[in-house]
Amino acid sequence: MTESAQGLQSHGRRIRRVAAIDIGTNSTHLLVAAVDPSLRTFSVELAEKSTTRLGERDPDSGHLTDGAMTRALETLRRFRELASSHQVEQIVTAATSAVREAPNGRDFLQQIKDELDLDVDLVSGPEEARLIYLGVLSGMPFGDRPHLLLDIGGGSTELILADGRDARALTSTRVGAVRLQRDFVKDDPIPAQRRAFLQAFIQGSLEPAVDKVRRRIKPGETPVMVATSGTAMAIGALAANEEERPPLKLHGYRISRQRLDRVVEKLVSMTPEQRRALAPINDRRAEIIVPGALILQTTMQMLAVDEMVLSERALREGLIVDWMLRHGLLEDRFSFQSSIRQRTVIHQVQRFAVNQLRAERVASHALSLYDSTGGQLHQDGGAGRDLLWAAAMLHTCGQHINLSAYHKHSWYLIRHGELLGYSEAEHLMVAAIARYHRRSLPKKRHEAWQALQSRDNRTTVSEMALLLRLAAALDRRPEPVVASIRADLSGRVLSLELVPERLNQNISLEQWSLESCEPVLREVTGLALNVTVRQ
Q1: Pseudo-torsion of CA 386, 389, 392, 398, nearest 10°?
Q2: Which class would CATH give 3-123+316-330?
Q3: Apex 320 CA angle, 22 and 148, nearest 5
Q4: Phi, psi of 116 (to 5 degrees)
Q5: Spatial distance between the Cα atoms of 445 and 450, rounded to a whole number of angstroms
Q6: Eight-class DSSP state of 244
Q7: From CA 313, how far away is CA 20, in angstroms rounded?
Q8: Euclidean distance between CA atoms 195 and 201, whole angstroms
Q9: What does 326-383 look like in DSSP terms, one character per residue?
Q10: Is a pLDDT exceeding 50 seen at residue 324?
Q11: Quick one: pLDDT at residue 5?
Q12: How far apart are CA 70 and CA 145, in angstroms?
């Protein structure tokens, strides 16, 4: 294999590309990932989906039908060509419940090998759960709390209890949206009596998995529920459409059980034609979303969970993480957890060709000011510190678009970029802090200000943006000249002492730049500014 196929250069870094294909019961997915060996992380370059409906098996024999296998083979042929066009070094492929349960499933995998030269791993239920866990782990910080991961597939539902250090329970149950639709839904809308029967069947099927999970939740723990799958995303999109300001991305979006119940009641009462008319639901999803929604609703009830958070990452991202583990690109599966936020920010720094050394200096000064002015320039309890760091690292990313108004372009790029590990609200705050680090203060008409979700969020942005403004004022030259900055508040005067890198170094430019921030400081805080240089 040529060097170009094995790894490409991106901003001087060797990037390895790998593709993952997930052959599911309802859909087949392709993901092309750019793996950065130095950062030990990956980004998604391409995501494709095709509704192949392998779950529509022969009702008597349970075999995969000729039509379903033909659809899947055509999709796999196209996905292989797409992956090759991205010069991937390997395609990792997994087949789940529809193929593993069909009597001719292994024959089908041999046909894929013979015709397309693709090796497909036929994963077991617990292995499917493990891969889902790895995928979610790569894109969402678990912190100190255990998480309940729920993936509703076409033929099976995986329920996982995990924390940042271990997967405590990996379960897979043979109950899925396609399977229930095929076996139980004869009339649509579902009559009330049939719905009650279906819910009782779901509950009975899930009881062993739920019991296993419950036994492994420690006293005093309150797990976070994470839902992933096409069903969860479609329901999330419907719930988000009710928002005054719908989120740009569903990853990290939170849905209360009350809102879920409202969405489910609406879906259950509709005909398939009415569901197809809903923007987030395609034709095939309209047929199977009600059984999938009932699985989600019943699981939340059984676990007494009041809220769920959505994850766009699941099995196919787990295949990428597993590939990285097997190729020595991760020390262990928890490497992502220790620094998800830092890795995703650094990835965006490199993606937008930000001068990382200068960004790190600004971030260092900003955090120094944060640490030394608590209760004075800000009243933040700690959550804003990480947002300030991220904004400092990315505040100049818009410069390659327009130098004079780069802060506005930085807001747009950050806002529409991928920041894994940050909630939607935090993502908006990082972008807004970068937006308001220079030029005018926030105004009600500004889109960046209107997008912020609460008064507390606006306060945090205002305080962190002021700290970033002061820190960025010291970034006047390519080379570092200010070693550190000392802050002291006396009366209504903020005194900032600049410590130069070298003795007797002239940093009058930085002193002047910092003094030019006084009008904004006075308007925001009412404080005067005194800047001195340590001799």
Answers
A1: -60
A2: alpha beta
A3: 80
A4: -120, -5
A5: 7
A6: S
A7: 13
A8: 10
A9: HTTSSSSTTHHHHTHHHHHHHHHHHHTT--HHHHHHHHHHHHHHHHH-BTTTB---SH
A10: yes
A11: 37
A12: 45
- Cβ-in-10-Å burial (0-12, 13-18, 19+) of 469 comes to buried
For residues 372 and 489, give the distance between their C-alpha atoms in angstroms, rounded to a whole number: 10
**What are the structure tokens assigned to 468, written together?**
């970033």
CATH number given to 140-312: 3.30.420.150
Q: Where are the beta strands (DSSP E) in 174-296?
A: 224-228, 254-256
Q: What are phi and psi of 69, to 5 degrees?
A: -65, -35
- The two three-digit tokens of residue 143, written as one number: 């912190």
CATH 3.30.70.1730: does it fit domain 341-533? no
Domain boundaries, the chain: 3-123+316-330, 140-312, 341-533
Classify residue 490 by its DSSP letter: E
Q: How far apart are CA 284 and CA 11, in angstroms?
A: 42
In this structure, are residues 69 and 108 in contact, taking their beta carbons and an 8 Å threshold? yes
pLDDT, one tens digit per residue, over 383-435 is 999 999 999 999 999 998 999 999 999 999 999 988 877 878 899 999 999 99
Kindly tell me the sign of the dihedral angle through the C-alpha atoms of 14, 88, 230, 183: negative
Q: Is the pTM of this model over 0.85?
A: no
